[in-house]
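ok trying this again, last paste got cut off
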Amino acid sequence: MTSRPAEPADINDPALRADAVAAARGDRAFDTLITGGRLVDMVTGQIRTADIGLVGALIASVHAPGGRSDAAETIDADGAYIVPGFIDTHMHVESSMATPAEYVATVLPRGVTTVVWDPHEFGNVHGLDGVRWAAEAADSLPLRMILLAPSCVPSAPRLELAGADFDADAMAEMLRWRSVGGVAEIMDMQGVIAGNPRMAAIVSAGLASGKLLCGHARGLSGADLNAFMAAGITSDHELTSGADLMAKLSAGMTIELRGSHDHLLPDFVKVLNELGHLPQTVTLCTDDVFPDDLHDNGGLDDVVRRLVRYGLRPEWALRAATLNAAQRLGRNDLGLVAAGRRADIVLLEDLEDFRARRVLVNGRTAARDGAMQAALPRLDATPLRDSVKLQPLSEDDFRVPAEKGRVRIATIDRPRFTRWGEMEAEVVDGFVEPPEGTTMIAVAHRHGKADSRPRIGFLTGWGKWRGAFCTTLSHDSHNLTVFGGNVRDMTLAANAVIAAGGGMAVASNGWIDAILPLPLSGLVTEASLKDTATTFRSIRKAMDAIVDWQPPYLVFKACFGATLACNVGPHQTDRGIADVLTGRVLESPVLEAL
């Protein structure tokens, strides 16, 4: 599946090891010698002056400064802090709306040298072909991208339809690919806990491979958490509070502490500081980063920076981002600047802003002063085009038909931690009149696997909308999803996105206020990240004008997770209002005529 030399076996080449041993003895010059730096020791947490000699992709020697000068190349660290390359233990390139090459060009100069990429967004849209495309793209890039095999395509079978359906055979096939390092976040929590045959077979394929089984355990505790873990799943990034962090640490889960829910980070820091030490099972991840945040603030380096700002010790944040992550991945070649390890090394300006002055990958300078030095091949993205298989929609497509009079309807209450609700509504001209205080949500199947008539729901707790928003980036089946306060603007936004081949649009007062075309898979654009970030900011600004946000739960980001049917509570999908706990699906929100 991939063409580059297999890692980590590549650094065990006998000739390379012999050269490194000779260089360490002093019988051979180093290829590269880093001098004048301060090494941050990931084992002891101490900071000491040291010189570092490299031979090819190997660290041959870490020794007292000034002892050696024999090297083909010398890098003067000039007082910089020397740390291992950062490792992001769970992320989705697609959430940045950028191509893999554009993503790498942004995060590698900031010190990220390894990411664990779950390409389930591409998988949900294109099936195995989407995952193959991701593997080919990753293989050509200088940043190490360890792929995980998407485990839940769709995230909630029977409750939604994606562009593909991965069973145990598909999982076993992906796990045979050398580029795949394990099973990606297992989101069908209830399927695992209940012993559902489909999920049991998928988990069994992962166990048989001997590779990682990664989790998505939002809201699980007690017997449910034990059952989830007893199946063989070993990690979670879906933490909801400091107490949840402590409970899952105590249970023995590996934590992928994510930066995408910033309001939770201070509580996590408080828990870790009160614990008095950093457990070796705490790693860091980004999960989802929007293009403007990625462009302005970075990736995993930003998570490290914020944790330290909130009071975590710099050496702890760095250890979580390096050595702990490497141990989680079973990669003893990574995560430590020590003789015999892989030469993924970052020179940092300080331990506050964590600005990377130079980044080495496999012993070679890949980025310097924020700019890439290594080449970034770009894979042909033609296979990702034409993924929105929808005809233009009409205003009646966004109305709920009903008999005359009044009806009782089901509602989806709260933007996060959703729950069922009920309301009464008037019927006008054969359609339900949205009750005061509700926001409409419509989801249309866009993958060509089933009928594409939008299924409509009514949300409460989403404020009063003065327009509409449409997106094809809608976790995780990525069907066309529209939110709005009136059918005219909903129709306008939806048809603009359909015409663009995917993306997102904001409409109000009968006009398109902002649009971001995402013609690759309906998720990604080939534009530069800078341009994408600028356009995405215009989407944010337009959204601020049509809805009043109420953090931490009623926020723009909530629009992209409102259809995540694997999470507990009712969620709107392309099949109707779905509840993973009961298996209930309401094609229409109308419960009865009154």
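PB: full thing came through this time. The chain is about 25% helix and 30% strand.
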